[in-house]
Amino acid sequence: MASLKINYALLSVVILLIVFTVVGFYIPLVLGEDPGTGFAIWNSMRNGAAFNTFLTPSPNNLLQDIALFVTWWTPGQYWIPGTFSQLFGTALGTAGVWVTLIFSAVGLWGWYQIYKILGFRSEIVALSIFLIASSRLFTINFLNYTGGEVLIFGGQPWVIWWYLKYKHRFVIFLIGLVVLSLLCFFFKSAHTIGLAALCICGGLSYLRILTISRKFKNPYFVVCLTLGLGTLLYLFITNFLFLTKGTNPSSSISQPFRFNVDSLEILTYPFNQWLNFSDIYLQLLKKDIISPNAVLYWGMLVGCLAVQFWIVKNNSLQEAKMLFWGLYVGYFAIFLVVYNKGADISIEYRHVKTVAYAFLPLLVNTMMQSAWYKRVLLTAVLLLNSGYGIASYVLKKQEINKHYVTGIAGFKLREATHEDISYIQEIDQPQNILWFTMSSLSVESQKARKIITGFDFNLSRAGGFVFDRYHGKGPKIYACFHQLYGRDPAVQLSGMFDQYEFKKVKQTSNYIFFEGEPSTKK
Prior knowledge:
Blueprint: H1 2-26, E1 30-31, H2 33-46, E2 53-57, E3 65-69, H3 76-88, H4 92-117, H5 122-133, H6 136-139, E4 144-145, H7 148-166, H8 170-187, H9 191-213, H10 220-241, H11 269-272, H12 277-286, H13 294-313, H14 318-340, H15 353-367, H16 372-403, E5 405-406, E6 412-413, H17 418-427, E7 432-436, E8 449-452, H18 457-462, E9 476-482, H19 489-496, E10 500-507, E11 511-518
Parallel strand pairs: 1-4, 7-8, 7-9
Antiparallel strand pairs: 2-3, 5-6, 9-11, 10-11
Helix pairs in contact: 1-4, 1-5, 2-3, 3-4, 4-5, 4-7, 5-15, 7-8, 7-9, 8-10, 9-10, 9-14, 14-15
């Protein structure tokens, strides 16, 4: 009976992957803002720019370009689907579906191997993998092309697996740790936090053995030395060969530590993720189904935190517990300090999802005991995690299919119309400059020179994508302003391009287009 349940769970995962992928070919992935910027870099490279370099008009002379080596994101998010698209002759959107499938499957297999090596029973492992594959955090990758998020999901489990399997074999552990970590950095630079958290895992295991054996040089002594040496090599390579060439969100820290009470919510995430209490609560608030109640909300979070720690305490697999505690302390200590010091990084669950994956088999192990209330919890998790994850996927796909349009790059575009895309194609000429205030829309422009921002101009300026003022005259400038953009278009255009005269040439449901020509005034 147990083997039958295992087969059903794993078969369900395979079916989900197939269905998500097939649907993705008929209803393409939505392109997000960060990957949208990435594909602008890919376009620059195809037009002759150096690796990972974005060509954008120079603020000193609009007739020339400057080369921006981009360090806000690592290149994997655009280079992998871009290369796939070139090799197989597919649209970028189609390549995005294939990349999402491959890295999702590889990531699930990685967590499967981690749970097995930690000693969990096969039925717990199978159910845990099913819960991941049917969770909202996983299904969203088949709604939007999430770039580095889906890539790191495929890569990071194998760094953890390597640690668990080879940690007591110094040379092979060191080589694999550095190589796999550099690969994960290529996928997403936030892997640095994950590697630091893995070091804490080794440190906690060392301290645990020390308290038992009282031996300073216990088996984890060399493990910690290897982790430290590997991390130093990793930091040296990533910093001096990549990060020092530009800016990144953590470099935008501009204030002393100021505690934000909202950051407490994320501490409950490892447990909360599998019940979606916070997400469902916010959805109900948005729809005015319930009224805000701070006492209820914070009481719910305190309850989640208490249950979360109780579950960890009452599990007997020590290595699994050390892995969870190391990741928990590492991720939240680093992430929350950086966030509360004002870095331009959002406090979202996706940044710490690895901790939830490490907690999951501990939760499932507790739920599969015989006590009736644990069975109730298992049913609740299946409904609130899997039911919510799959239902939200279906509803969102229907919304995307009905309200979003597909561009020539093969992605669904948020808040765009066929009229917007047609006009962009019309003005997409080598002699023009196009300025996009929604970077995902820039994927529709292949020929024109580009200026890219997002809704937050200051954030884009910090990344070097846009400047306060541009000097010189030359090509026509077309500015594509989203109606929710936070600045007055006319005022900003006159300030940035003071040697141009602009007029509004088109307005659609979401965008206002301005055309600028060199001023005839002296």
